[in-house]
Amino acid sequence: MFPLIRVSLRSLITASAICCVGVLYAQGTATTAVRSAELKIGLVNTEKLLRESAPAQRAFKKLEREFAARQADVERVAKKFRDQSAAFEKEQLTLNDADRRNKQRELEVSSRDLQRAQRELREDENLRRNEELAGLQERLQKAIQQIAELEKFDLILQEAVYVSNRIDITDRVLKALADK
Question: What's the CA gap between 152 and 59, in Å, rounded?
Fold first, then answer.
């Protein structure tokens, strides 16, 4: 009885080994088929697009113009505060205690007003910048999508540790954006 079982186990082991070799061969053939099909991959440097594209430059110039008046107002308030502070430093030794405290309070109020104006300006600038960036990113995505469809790319990435110049399509996207 034992010899019969042994033969059966050997047959099973041999049959299993043959199946495994067949599966491995089939996998190797499938892998070779995938390797032989060429994938067209591109990469876009988003940071460069946001820095150098014509729409990005127009958007940032627009933001500068939009906030120039408020920035000038904040700078005027800052200069006024610095002048008041310098004047107080010069005359504080000649002031009596009540006048000195009043001037210090005025300076503290001016300082808070200046800080509030600076903070509000920064917040408004950030909000508008984010709005402009959202619209700009949408335009960039559309341009990238058009290039991908026209040139039959299989995959376009936006970030990588290393990029060969062969697959970097950033300049093509910049050109496409400049034409619009």
Answer: 30
